[in-house]
Amino acid sequence: MDTKKRILDEALTLFSEKGYANVFVGDIADRVGIKAPSLYKHYKNKRAIFDAIIDEMNQRFAEQAKSMNINGTDAQKDSEIYKNMSEEKLLALGRQFFLYYLHDDYNKRFRKMLTIEQFNSKDLADIYSKLYVDDPLAYQSMLLGMVAQAGMLHTDNVNIMTLHFYAPIYFLLTMCDRDPEREPEALKTLDEHIKQFNRLYGRTK
Amino acid sequence: MDTKKRILDEALTLFSEKGYANVFVGDIADRVGIKAPSLYKHYKNKRAIFDAIIDEMNQRFAEQAKSMNINGTDAQKDSEIYKNMSEEKLLALGRQFFLYYLHDDYNKRFRKMLTIEQFNSKDLADIYSKLYVDDPLAYQSMLLGMVAQAGMLHTDNVNIMTLHFYAPIYFLLTMCDRDPEREPEALKTLDEHIKQFNRLYGRTK
DNA sequence: ACAGGCGGCTAATTCGAATTAGCCAAAGTA
DNA sequence: TACTTTGGCTAATTCGAATTAGCCGCCTGT
Q1: How high is the mean pLDDT of chain B?
Q2: How far is the CA of B38 from the C1' of C5 (A)?
């Protein structure tokens, strides 16, 4: 990988572990395997590295959103899929989301960095809320809404149902970020959560 | 208030807004109304101020835990209270917890500070998990468990039921910490959540 | 009255971290 | 070939923030 990208990568790792202010330009350089002054051949200053990370995230996000939309409209037409939503599939959905967010290297680091930096500016707070509050709720509402329309879940308030699905996942996710040793416990709880969710919302009225 | 305490108070405010590393000793001194070097008459160094905040929290916590235990054992004997747990009372419980944690000046600032600092040490991570994960779950499990025993809520897994009650509250709480403007929305969602929770777990089998 | 300590201040010190200056070799390119 | 860009390095600079030195007035107890 070329140096310019490696800098972003190593910087993100460090920022996610210690926060922007506790990372020295020299730390980043060390990890990349160059000396601190050489960093300035690639970025104007330390802040520019941080900004570039945010920019990169915006790009990644834009791409992801695009593919999501495509899936979304495809899925809307094809409502057959949702007619046999079983407990197993709900479990798979929840686990997949949880494990992807938890372990995907980029997601994990970016989320932890944002957690640390979220109070430093409105912009960062907005990004956090978008990525970990509003977008997941919107996406999962769409999904669970389809399942409900197909008659496999029952509610008169899809948004609250989605909150009941997602909030425990978020809760367990932030717990594992803080304390990775609790992942097994979290996975167990996640499964129990989704089974119970399915019992609560899935049974025929 | 004497200076020594005012220092802790103002430091906590600043740490909760910007994080330890972004706060200068001079900032704290300014707010207290003294010069930076005078701070050293009260604390050995900047880190000692942070540690004193943690110590103070431990003390407060110990007291609170004590009073909780007393209430707990009192309540255990007196199970009559839980026999007429209505939707209104559940709403009151949830709102009370949410608003207290959200607005209580000490809680709010301490929680935000921990949010920022949680990845810097195992100790801080443990404190966070204890205060905002394990203790609330344990306490509310105890409470909801009583209500279930009194026959007003139905579940075969109190812990998951408690997770379903608490996780959305936690989710909304962290959202409001990040973006206080969303509090009205959060309060509305909170009410809907609890009403739905009551419908899901409260109805007779 | 006065000795001591508390808590404030200004001025000085230290020190670490970001950044800049200026050199150089390799690689590309007219 | 000779010129330029690129990206690395060491040494120097700058600067800001934590901390220390040393002074002083005030209260308190004798």
Answers
A1: 92
A2: 15
pLDDT in tens, B4-46: 999 999 999 999 999 999 999 999 999 999 999 999 999 999 9
- Kindly report the nearest CA distance between residue A181 and chain B, in angstroms: 11
Query: Nearest-5° angle of CA B173, CA A177, CA A126?
Result: 45
A68-200: CATH, from 1.10.12, 1.10.357, 2.20.25, 3.30.70: 1.10.357
Amino acid letter for position B82: Y
pTM value > 0.85: yes
B47 CB-to-strand D distance under 7 Å: yes
Specify whether the CB–CB gap between B170 and B152 falls below 8 A.
no
CATH architecture of B1-55: Orthogonal Bundle (1.10)
In b/e form, how buried is each residue of A30-63, taking b as 16+ CB within 10 angstroms?
eebebeeeebeebbeebeebbebbeebbeeeeee
Residue type at B140 in one-letter notation: Q
**Which nucleotide lies nearest residue A47, CA to C1'?**
C18
From the CA of B11 to the C1' of C5: give the distance in Å: 26
Q: Which chain B residues are closer than 8 Å to A163 by Cβ?
A: 168, 171, 189, 193
